[in-house]
Amino acid sequence: MYIEAELDEIHTERLLRLQQKLQKPVAEVVAAAIDALSNTTLTLQQETHGTRIRQILEEEGLVGCMEAENNLSVDYKNHLWSSES
Q1: Could you tell me the residue range of the domain that residue 45 belongs to?
Q2: Residue at 53 is within a domain
Q3: How confident is the model over 37-65, as pLDDT tens digits?
Q4: How far apart are CA 29 and CA 34, in angstroms?
């Protein structure tokens, strides 16, 4: 794919510095930058999705809705299906 872009002076200097530091053609430097940004964006979206799920669970009263010991993640079945209620 052919892309033509005009960069301001600051970004031009940064791109040239990266190219010199990495000793790679500009196209490879830009591709690496796109990959890095893409990975960062995916990570942020996952965190945002998890945050939203927790928020919904808290709004519905499902977070902290029962009392148990600190190791509930290990023995939750004992609490959910025990005859003691």
Answers
A1: 9-80
A2: yes
A3: 887 776 666 677 888 888 888 888 888 77
A4: 9
